[in-house]
Amino acid sequence: MTEKKLNIGSHDLPVSDRLTEFMKTGWADTEYDDVPRNESAPYAAVRRERLSAAHPGKRIVIPAGTFKARVNDSDYRFRASSPFSWLTGIGAAEAVPDTVLVLEPTVDGHDAHLYLHPRSPRDTAEFFRDRRHGEFWVGRRVTAKEAFARYGIEVRHIDNLGDVLRDGTATIAVRGEDPAVDVLLPSGTGADIDLVQWLSEARLVKDEYEVKELQFAVDATIRGFEDAVRSFPAAMKEPNGERVVEAAFYARARLEGNEPGYDTIAASGAHACVLHWIRNDGAVKDGDLLLLDAGVEVDSHYTSDVTRTLPVNGSFSEAQRKMYMLVYDAQQAAIAAVKPGAKFRDFHRAAMRVIANGLAEWGVLPISGEESLLDDVGLHRRWTLCSTGHMLGMDVHDCAKARAEEYLDGVLQVGNVLTIEPGLYFQPDDLLLPEELRGIGIRIEDDVIVTEDGCRLLTETLPRHPDDIERWMSQIV
What we know:
Layout: H1 17-23, H2 41-54, E1 59-63, E2 69-71, E3 74-75, H3 82-88, E4 100-106, E5 109-116, H4 126-129, H5 135-138, H6 144-151, E6 154-157, H7 161-165, E7 171-173, H8 179-182, H9 190-201, H10 208-230, H11 232-235, H12 242-256, E8 259-260, E9 265-268, E10 289-294, E11 296-297, E12 306-311, H13 318-336, H14 346-362, H15 369-372, E13 417-420, E14 423-426, E15 440-443, E16 446-451, E17 454-457, H16 466-475
Parallel strand pairs: 1-7, 5-6
Antiparallel strand pairs: 1-4, 2-3, 4-5, 8-11, 9-10, 10-12, 13-16, 14-15, 16-17
């Protein structure tokens, strides 16, 4: 039997030496001389100073990350890690895979160095042969000179990183983003965990630039919701119409931002009872509600996270409105509970009080609302499983590595940005429910910023009350 060999090489055509030499000739100088400083650069510099002050005497390594394989030799679109983007200000359009930010300890702080794979000169074959970094394959990258001008960070070639990280300097790092960097690092310690926690907690309060970018993301998302509503007539004609709605929003996300900040949930009918429904392969039917949970991630990586539950035909039925108003009242109570000094969990408790008492009044809950609200009872959670909100920023579930005492068990501060998203999910096979309510899922989600006297809805221009939703939908053509 003849032994078969697995072909694991490239399927590119061979390139002759003469072609290689010919390709290196006849190119104009295209380096940019007047590169403007990135708007985010001064904010990123302040963040690096805070990081430096919190970790004196230690080398700090923050990788951007690398490609993640989708299938075979096809990768997902590269998205830099949030800590790296936050500390450098490098956005999606400019991020280069395999880049690493290194803060080198000095007597009075740290010096920042950006190790990257800069634009390849035309005197090597890289620009037309390298599928990963070659300009003819993936587009133009910045030169080292351009990168310094753009970000205000000293630039070094990534090929030098190995020698630097092996010199014995005490090092802390974000691990798990880039395997090639991880193998260069000394053994991990508890200090690495402390660094990851610090990077989450430092992002709990947003600066002026971050708030501006989040508002930009919200505004683009609202336009995406309008696009989605316009797609309803076409969606109703397709057997998997949820994907028509998803596609309409995706187009807006790519037009005005980087991409959606997370997989869009376009859940029609009973699919709205599945909290993270992302298959989006169902029909969109006249008379059903469609729960749309979607957010645009802009180029700076800040994302919004918004949900509306919309009547496909533009009008709520009596049963749909009844459920919707209970969720709406719960959200109103939650929003009123958001203020500086309040516990993070307070707005969730405020929403659940409305939900539990409402379910008891309907006769759905077999005990009183107050009894159900006891920590060791919680029967109302059968119909509202998840929490009422989370922090928002570069990650849709931002600051997730923060310690509980600084986040879940902490108090709200001016500059926190979070979601308020109560919901009710009545499964179609739940025999404890009146038949007319089965198979209805409702969630209303808005993005808010904590202010001195309460909070401000970043999403205030997107209607929430059912009367306003019906009026808004009737005006969208």
